[in-house]
Amino acid sequence: MSRRIYFLWGEESYLIDRELERIAAIIGQESGEEVETIYLDADELNAYELLEALQFSPLFSLQRLVVIKRPWWLGKAKRRGGKTAEIEKVFLDYLQQDMEGQVLVLTANEHSTTNPLVKILDREATVIACKSLGSQQLSEWINKEFASRGLKVEKSAANLMAKSGQGMYYLQNLIDKIALLVKGRPVKIADIEGELETKAEIKVFKLSDALLKRNLKASFQAYNQLLVQGEHPILFLYIIVRQFMALARVKYYNEKSYGSKEIVAQTGLHEFMVKKMLDNARNFSWDELRQLFQIFLQTDVKFKSSSLDDKMLMEALIVEICSKR
Question: What is the 3-state secondary structure (H, E, C) of 180-239?
């Protein structure tokens, strides 16, 4: 490609970064020297500063790779506003110059065909779609990652990870952690279940954290945000119950004068989770916790067997939790 510009798009940061590594390796092989890589934060640069940053003279380095990750001006029109005309001129000017020795890479979450800058890139750049992997492809990647660490993983365990909704960087870090825990034996689904958090669970944690603090306003804000994101109230109940079970266990051992490290050992909870529960344990008496667990059970039964609106049941539960008795 004469102008040596790449446009990478896709939501999975891991795949974008692997493609960047591949491009850098190609440049290095072609030139036979190490490539200088520059990352520009375009959101912090105005049009003039961006044009200045893109100028290149091969005085000290014969090859330079310039990366601009997910700038706002490559998104859809409603996100861009009317501020892209100057940026568009920068790129038109850049394309008129001979930047021999420099490769420019731009990335975006999506390929917005109505964006005038994307139209320019479609004409002038090598466009590479880094689409997120399907569950089968992701499961195969997980198996390869475990195999590269000398481990075998049960099919059910790999499938659970693949369907969690987590990004590949999260899964890679989890694989590293599991590899340390299993110490060479095959990885079972129980190993994964104890460590894996789904995206949905992470979203609900903001609600459960507000409930543990008995902050009614923050709880309803988090709850309404979850509804907008399309999550179902039954999921909220499941995760909230888990959080309150953890709270009760930590509260019990704390009142037995166990230290935080001893509580971690007794409960199997992460250290940060124990700290969070210790901070909130005084917010609930044992009588209140007993009443709440009865209410959790009643709400679960109503979800499954009554014609009452799920959202109304959840709203009533939020009020119950935040109301001090």
Answer: HHHCCCCECHHHHHCCCCCHHHHHHHHHHHHHHCCCHHHHHHHHHHHHHCCCCHHHHHHH
